[in-house]
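User: Hey, my collaborator sent me this sequence without any context and asked if I could get a structure. I don't really work with proteins. Can you help?
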Amino acid sequence: MSNRGVALRDTASHAAILAQTSPIKPSLYLERLVVPTRAPGDVRPPVVSSLRSARVRSERIQLRRALSYLGMTLLLPGSAQIAAGNRRLGQVAVHTWIGLWAVIITTGLLALLWPSGALDLFALPATSRIIQAVLIMAGIGWVVLLADAWRISRPPELANPHRLGLALFTLLVIGAMVAAIAVAASMLSAQRDVVQTVFAGGGDRKAKAGRYNILLMGGDAGKNRVGLRPDSMTVASVDAETGRTVLISLPRNMEHVPFPDWSPLHEIFPDGYYCSVRSCMLNAVYGYAMSHQNLYPTAQNPGAEATKEAIEGATGLLINYWVLVDLKGFESLVDAVGGITMDVYRRVPIGGGSSPISGYLEAGRDRHLNGRQALWFARSRADSSDYDRMVRQKCVMNAMLNQLDPLTVLTKFNKIAAAGKEVVATNIPASDLSTMVELALAAKKLPVSSVAFMPPLVHPGDPDFQVVRDTVNAKIAAAEAADSETSDASSAEPAATSKTTASSIERPQGSKPSDGPNRGPETNDLTKICTA
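Assistant: No problem. I've predicted the 3D structure and written it out in C-alpha cell form, which is a compact way to encode the shape of the chain:
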C-alpha cells in the first residue's frame, strides 16, 4: 500500500476514535480534513464514505446510551446516576425507591390478609394526606432524576435529529408521569372528601340479633327537593356473618304507621301516623319531622331519623343505619359506573306524571341501561302501580349489587365519588365502611330474598302490622335457615329472639307467596323475579 493510502487509513481510524471520545462533533472534525481527490479510474472505497459510516455508528451509540439512561431511571430511579453521574444522589434514590416498594408490598399483603383493617386505615383522612404528600415528593424527585439522566447523556454531542427527538421523548415521559401522579392525588382528595362529607356517622354499630338492618330511602328528584318525600323505602336486613340479604319494601302510601315508644312522635301520634284528610302516609313522615326539628335536636337529619323510627314501628326491626339517595342524582351515579346491565321484564315508559312520556324501555334480556333509563325503570308511574315500582326498584338494587365490583369502583372512583357526594346522605360512619364492603361482597355470592307489603298481603290504607312483623320474621328466619348446615329452611326452628318461622305464618286471606313469574309480594331469589 502506498504511503498516501496508509496515511488515509490512519486518518479514518483516528477520526472514528475522535468521534467517540472527542467533544468536537465528528462533522466539524471532518470539515478540517484535507481529503485528496480520487484519481480517474481509482476503484478503492472513498475515505469520506468510511468516515461517514464511522460518524453514523458513533451517533447511534450515543443515542442508545442516552435512551438507556432514561430507561434505567424509569425502571430504577437513581441507577443512571450510579452508572454515569452523581453516585451519592443515585444511591439515595435507589434506596428510597426500594423502601417505597417495600411499603407498597407490605400494604398489599395487609389488604389481602386483613382487608377490613386496610380499608379502615385508608378511610382515615390523615392516611390519604400522607400518601398524597409522599406521591408529590416522589414525583418531584423522579422528574429531577429524569432531567439529570437527560443531562448526563450529553445531548450537545448528539446529531441534531437525535438531540431533538431525545428532548421531546424526555418531556413526554415527564409529562405522563406528572399526569399519573396528579390523577392519583386527585383520587385521594376525592376519597377523603367523600368520606368526610357523606359518612358523617351517627348510626348504631351493634348488630341486632346477628343482623345489620339498613334503611334505604329514595328521595324525590328535583331542585331543592332532595329527600323531602322519600319515594321508596326498603330495609336491607343483612346477616352479619354470611351477608345473606332480605329486602323488605314498604309502600309510600302506607297509613296508621306506629312509632315505637322511644320515638318523640309516639306521644303526638300514639295510635299511629294518621290524619282525617288521608295525607298522613309513610312518605310524609320525613317532611313532618323536618318541619318540627325541635323534636330531634341532636339528629343530623330529623326527617331520616323519624322515617327510621316509623319503619321500626311497622316492621319490628331495629334499624342500624339509614341511607338517603336522591333518585335524580342516582342517574349520575349509574352513568359514573358505566351503566348497568339487567333484564327488563316488561315494557316501561320513560316519563309520566309531571314529565311527558318521551319513549319506552322495551322488554328484553341483558339490556344495558344508562343512568336516565335505569332511573325511569325504577321510578316510572305511568301504566304502573306503586307495587310494580317497588319490584322494579329492587331489581335495580340487585343489578347494582351484582355489578359494582372493586375494579369498577377503583377505575371510576372520581366519577363515583363526585356523584356520591351529590346523591347520598347516610349515618354510616367511615369506621364501618370496611364492614359494609365485606357484607356487600359476601351478599353478591348469595341469592337475595324479598318481600313487598302490597295487596293482597297487606292493604296500605288499613294495614295489619302484626302480619307485617310476622312476615318479616318469617323471611329472616328462612334466610338464616338457608345458611345453616344442620337445618332445612322449611323446618327451621324459631331463633332465641322469638322469630316466627316461615311455615307457621297464617297469611291474610287471599294472599299467596310469589312463585316467580307473577312477581307477587314475596320471593326467595330476587334475580329470578327480575328475569325477563
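In plain terms: The longest helix spans residues 160-198. You can pass these C-alpha cells on to your collaborator as they are.
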